[in-house]
């Protein structure tokens, strides 16, 4: 397996790529070339196209990383020839014909339900008052408030966009489970990781684990880049 020196980071719904800053800095310090995708999150198709444009610019093997809804994006965009491995960070990993919408349709009894407000003009937001507890429980209060107040509208076509060819069926995949996640239940994360045949690690962290534990997330990505699983 060729060692990847390129990393592409894909954010999820309600946020933008700036949340990757800590992971970006750690990976850059380790010598990787890192690119951060800025998805409009209007539609899955559109976000896949944006991600593929960033992948087109890579000069060799690339690890494609997705958080949350970004996992749906990388599951489709990861078929790009430059992608050598996929990394899911507390992310959705849809199979063919699945969308985030189908994956969250039937939450198990007792599982926390994300405080997604009813759509307005085709866009979704999280309840600002409940954002911290659901999305960012391990961040300082001020940081969680900033994320809540800088939410990116999440389009219904992104939520409902179905994956047509899941890249995890043909590319090595890795999955970091956030055990304190109140957006995607940890049992659901484990089930998607197992289905994908992913190399799995777990860490205590909220849905915003990529923000709260950047060094640990970067180290996990680094293992995917070098092909090590220990």
UniProtKB/TrEMBL annotation:
Keywords, comma-separated and alphabetical: Hydrolase
Superkingdom of source: Bacteria
Gene Ontology molecular functions: hydrolase activity
Pfam families: Abhydrolase_6
Occurrences of domain AB hydrolase-1 (ranges): 7-219
PANTHER family to which the protein is assigned, alphabetical: AB HYDROLASE-1 DOMAIN-CONTAINING PROTEIN-RELATED (PTHR37017), ESTERASE_LIPASE_THIOESTERASE DOMAIN-CONTAINING PROTEIN (PTHR37017:SF11)
Protein name: Alpha/beta fold hydrolase
Organism annotation: Streptomyces hokutonensis
